Amino acid sequence: MTSSSVSTPRVALVTGTSSGIGAAVVKHFCELGHQVLAVDFNPAGKAIAEQAGAAFFEADLTDPDACRAAVADAVKRFGGVDILVNNAGIQHVASIETFPEEKWRQIMDLMLTAPFLLTQAAWPHMREKGWGRIVNVASIHAQVASPGKAAYISAKHGMIGLTKTAALEGGEQGITANAVCPAYVKTPLVDNQIADQAKLHGMDEQEVIEKVMLKQAAIKRLIEPEEVAQLVAYLASDAAGAVTGSSFNIDLGWTAPRHKRFSFSRVGAWTASN
After folding, report:
1. Choosing from 152, 234, 248, 254, which is the catalytic residue?
2. β-pair partners for 137
3. What is the maximum span of the chain, computed from C-alpha positions, in angstroms?
4. DSSP letter string over 104-129?
5. b/e code 133-153 from CB counts within 10 Å (16+ = b)
């Protein structure tokens, strides 16, 4: 069953839409017939949104007033908000000892406080209709940790807590909340991480891809943004009405062997490694 066969046209607000997962979600939602407000701080996102058939709202979501203004704009344009996809994010790679406090605060404001404020602002509109879908784009780093990403990982872990709380509070109001947890997706954010990780680990960039990013993956490739968008669309559909408070890994098998990895040799022997 495809997402298009189970979707009723709705009003969707999507953040972090100038590239990557957000741009893919906007495009897919428009193809499903949703009215979409794409929200991003980058003015270049306007052309991307309009090409997909969406409206655009430029906003720095580290500003609480901008979060509320984005929801207000969707309500003014389309009459409400049925679907909220919290996707906006940034990354900074540094050890805890050297991590800049201003970067910590910026990441927390954008990736945890903004999703809360957007959810809070959209909630009354969902409650009044008796129908709402909140999809938080977390990360596999909402489940596990890696060195050098203290703020990002802390924010993503917090997003899972927010998702579960929203699910409990929204259950009797027709509002569901779920999280999508991708591993490394082919996006500009990941491209930038490759260079940062190379400096952190003293490797060249190809080594980072092979030995850091895809080391734990059963499927040795990066994820396409469109693959994530398909999962988001299902969770935002009528068909997912019984699905709430859950986190969905789309991680190439990355988290399957977190303690030991087993491999099968040509002679038929299983071997284990950490």
Report:
1. 152
2. 180
3. 66
4. HHHHHIIIIIHHHHHHHHHHHHHHHH
5. bbbbbbbbbbbbeeebbbbbb
pLDDT tens sequence across 171-220? 999 999 999 999 989 887 777 777 777 777 788 878 877 777 788 888 88
Place of tokens 């977390």: 138
Residues of the chain predicted below pLDDT 50: 1-5, 260-264, 267, 271-274
Helices 150-170 and 101-108, packing angle to 10 deg: 20
**Which residue is associated with the tokens 């809070």?**
120
- Whether residue 184 lies in the annotated active site: no
- Read off the tokens for 178: 């779920």
Pick the CATH number of 3-188+220-273 from 1.20.1250.20, 3.40.50.720, 1.10.10.10, 3.40.50.2300: 3.40.50.720
What are the tens digits of pLDDT across the range 89-99?
999 989 999 99
The residue to which tokens 């509002």 are assigned:
175
Contact between 20 and 185 under an 8 Å Cβ cutoff? The reply is: yes
Query: 3-state DSSP call for residue 57?
Result: strand
Nearest to 231 by CA among 164, 141, 133, 131: 133
Question: Angle CA(90)–CA(231)–CA(229) in degrees, nearest 5?
Answer: 50
Tokens of 149: 């990403």
